[in-house]
Recover the amino acids of this structure.
């Protein structure tokens, strides 16, 4: 394990994952001795889902354990946010106790691959002697999690941003719900119209660098160069301050300044709660918010896909995937881990996750089965996922420095929402993010 320790120390010696490297590691007893017997293999699975998604995830773990009681027991351990989980993973390389499986957030994909700790699911035979081919994956999801032609992990909870709208407020504002905006600029204009007509905020969204990535992709633009890091060369620079990016964020700032946008800060739950309380006509959110809005909104609501201002543009997949950690694991343990990961990516499980949480099904079979048999809102989610063009822009930026870059972008957006100059804020963030990506590439 010494070689891997040296590699991960090099990759993570700087950056967001190292910021909290001193965080207390959740107690996690080694299962090595337990797995030397002929009984069920006991494996730790670190996860970061919360709310309704966590409830579904734990139900599925219990189901898998019950169905495989003679061979595998999965011990699901909550490790906090994706950032906190990645930091604990770093600590575990030094202290031991690495899990067999980890739920990695979308933007940590390059980092997880670069550590050398993980192995592609297609290279591990499960307890039945089979491997996860990925042939059934929705192309957009498969594209996002593929590096150098190899599927790196199994996407299990994929999300895309959507526009959720309050039908009552749209009716009062004279806005036709069937006429979805064709660009982010259109949505900004509709938000101003809704506010002017009703006195209620037109839009609410939480401050998060994810929106910078999504707005960029919606216009068919690359977030990093070359080729968003998905080509033959690694990403070496961010593009955060183009004229179009500046224009969109200036439009958002104008909404905030006029009162047409409800600013709830960085708290996504506060934004959702405000929308559910009828305090905004539109909400920009992840598709996984569907379950919460459905359960709590006292009004009829609908969903539009993220407006795309280019035929090459669209939403970047978000969410998470399951990674197999090979370091220190026996062949038997890896087979058991692969069995659980394949279970989570299976068609039936993906259907359950979608119907209970709003996370999008990654299985093409599931999408085909559900098409035409779900609610209108759910159909919009399925259609957006299926129809988003598979382009360099919608692949999103792939770099292990994404976590550090997001910190810089978040600071810029907080300034913009507070009235700072948009162009200079984004330019400064770009410079700082480029320093991070240069540092990361030097450590690869």
């Amino acid at each position: 394990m010494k070689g891997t320790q040296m590699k991960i120390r090099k990759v993570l010696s700087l950056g967001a994952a190292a910021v909290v490297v001193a965080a207390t590691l959740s107690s996690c007893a080694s299962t090595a001795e337990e797995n030397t017997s002929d009984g069920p293999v006991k494996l730790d699975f670190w996860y970061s889902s919360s709310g309704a998604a966590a409830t579904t995830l734990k139900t599925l773990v219990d189901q898998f354990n019950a169905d495989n009681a003679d061979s595998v027991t999965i011990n699901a351990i909550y490790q906090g946010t994706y950032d906190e989980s990645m930091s604990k993973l770093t600590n575990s390389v030094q202290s031991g106790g690495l899990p067999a499986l980890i739920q990695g957030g979308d933007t940590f994909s390059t980092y997880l691959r670069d550590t050398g700790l993980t192995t592609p699911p297609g290279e591990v035979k499960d307890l039945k002697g089979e491997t996860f081919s990925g042939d059934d994956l929705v192309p957009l999801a498969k594209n996002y999690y593929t590096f150098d032609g190899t599927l790196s992990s199994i996407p299990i909870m994929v999300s895309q941003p959507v526009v959720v709208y309050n039908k009552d407020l749209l009716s009062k504002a004279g806005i036709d719900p069937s006429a979805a905006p064709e660009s982010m600029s259109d949505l900004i204009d509709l938000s101003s119209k809704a506010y002017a007509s009703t006195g209620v905020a037109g839009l609410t969204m939480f401050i998060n660098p994810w929106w910078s990535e999504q707005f960029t992709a919606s216009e068919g633009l690359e977030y990093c160069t070359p080729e968003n890091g998905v080509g033959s060369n690694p990403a070496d620079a961010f593009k955060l301050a183009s004229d179009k990016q500046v224009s969109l964020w200036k439009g958002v700032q104008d909404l905030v300044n006029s009162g047409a946008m409800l600013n709830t800060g960085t708290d996504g739950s506060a934004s959702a709660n405000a929308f559910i309380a009828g305090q905004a006509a539109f909400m920009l959110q992840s598709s996984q918010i569907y379950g919460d809005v459905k359960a709590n909104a006292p009004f009829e609501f609908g969903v539009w896909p993220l407006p795309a201002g280019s035929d090459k543009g669209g939403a970047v997949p978000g969410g998470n995937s399951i990674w197999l950690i090979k370091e220190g694991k026996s062949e038997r343990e890896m087979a058991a881990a692969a069995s659980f990961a394949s279970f989570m990516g299976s068609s039936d499980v993906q259907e359950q996750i979608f119907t209970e949480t709003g996370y999008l099904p990654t299985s093409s079979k599931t999408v085909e089965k559900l098409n035409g048999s779900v609610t209108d809102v759910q159909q919009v989610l399925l259609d957006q996922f299926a129809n988003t063009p598979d382009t360099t822009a919608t692949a999103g930026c792939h770099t292990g420095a994404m976590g550090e870059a997001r910190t810089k972008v978040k600071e810029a957006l907080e300034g913009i929402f507070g009235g700072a100059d948009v162009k200079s804020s984004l330019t400064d963030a770009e410079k700082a993010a480029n320093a991070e990506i240069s540092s990361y590439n030097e450590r690869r």
